[in-house]
């Protein structure tokens, strides 16, 4: 059960001193979502560009603490959008993780679904080509069907095409996001499991460490849940009435401000 009402959450910028005091005598690590957190939501996913301000803060932070990006995007795609080599990147909602010093993890059971995702991608691209604005984005371990640019009257058609395709595969399940419906492996693996995997792999789990996660969407709740008692979870905006987050930022501009202030405090 989610514990915090979004509207009652303390604001992360207004309470930055409290957050900084929680980091004292601990070693922080920082986990960031991409879309809706580091970049504003835009109609073309390829146009979600990291600002110079955020890039500068991330460079500064990565010189001091471990920084990881955990995204629903394909890992290679989000890594090229950020363009920094010394970060950990977890793509496809955590199924595909790489990082410095040869860090490389593909969530094994997910690989069995790759031929099914190939087939579904081919079918969906063919059928959805007839719906103006619909877009199929293949990530290694998921497919996002975008309907942000689809006429309202056609959205239900897109949804039923995706449901029909999903119905063909027992080992794929539906995932929801901001104006996307996803086809994902029907497995118990998500951003929260990936976050835990990274914490354990890098030995960042003990009481002397304190992880921070910032995210904006329903898929980010899995990561926020992991940190609800032993970390700092920040939700961006209010995707839902309740959340596992402990703090809130209202939008991506506030995330930029928060990252800049965090970098200044830690350096
Ligand atoms: O986990 P994230 O890094 O936040 O990725 C979630 C999805 O983000 C992208 O889609 C969203 O952002 C697009 C660009 O702003 C927007 O056009 C779309 O409507 C949003 O759903 C990305 O394209 C997806 O693959 C990610 O799953």
TrEMBL record:
Database matches in InterPro entries: HAD-like_sf (IPR036412), HAD-SF_hydro_IIB (IPR006379), HAD_sf (IPR023214), OTSB-like (IPR044651), Trehalose_PPase (IPR003337)
Pathway where this protein functions: Glycan biosynthesis; trehalose biosynthesis
Principal EC category: hydrolase
EC number: 3.1.3.12
Keyword Hydrolase: yes
Obligatory cofactor(s): Mg(2+)
This protein's UniProt keywords: Hydrolase, Magnesium, Metal-binding
Similarity remark: Belongs to the trehalose phosphatase family.
Biological role: Removes the phosphate from trehalose 6-phosphate to produce free trehalose.
Name under which the protein is recorded: Trehalose 6-phosphate phosphatase
Organism of origin: Anditalea andensis
């Amino acid at each position: 059960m989610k514990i915090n009402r979004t509207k009652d959450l303390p604001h992360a910028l207004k309470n930055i001193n409290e957050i900084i005091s929680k980091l004292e005598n601990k070693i922080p690590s920082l986990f960031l979502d991409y879309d809706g957190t580091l970049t504003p939501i835009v109609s073309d996913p390829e146009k979600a560009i990291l600002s110079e301000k955020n890039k500068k803060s991330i460079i500064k932070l990565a010189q001091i603490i471990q920084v990881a990006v955990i995204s629903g995007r394909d890992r290679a795609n989000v890594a090229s959008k950020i363009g920094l080599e010394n970060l950990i990147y977890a793509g496809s909602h955590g199924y595909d993780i790489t990082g410095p010093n040869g860090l490389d993890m593909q969530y094994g059971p997910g690989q069995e679904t790759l031929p099914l995702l190939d087939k579904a991608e081919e079918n969906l691209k063919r059928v959805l080509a007839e719906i103006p604005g619909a877009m199929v984005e293949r990530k290694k371990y998921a497919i996002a069907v975008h309907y942000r640019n689809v006429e309202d009257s056609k959205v239900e058609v897109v949804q039923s095409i995706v449901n029909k395709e999903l119905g063909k595969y027992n080992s794929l399940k539906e995932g929801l996001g901001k104006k996307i419906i996803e086809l994902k492996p029907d497995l118990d693996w998500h951003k929260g499991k990936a976050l835990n995997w990274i914490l354990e792999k890098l030995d960042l789990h003990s009481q002397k460490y304190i992880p921070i996660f910032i995210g904006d969407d329903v898929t980010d709740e899995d990561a926020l849940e992991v940190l609800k008692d032993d970390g700092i979870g920040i939700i961006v905006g209010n995707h839902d009435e309740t959340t596992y987050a402990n703090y809130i930022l209202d939008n991506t501009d506030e995330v930029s401000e928060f990252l800049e202030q965090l970098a200044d405090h830690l350096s």
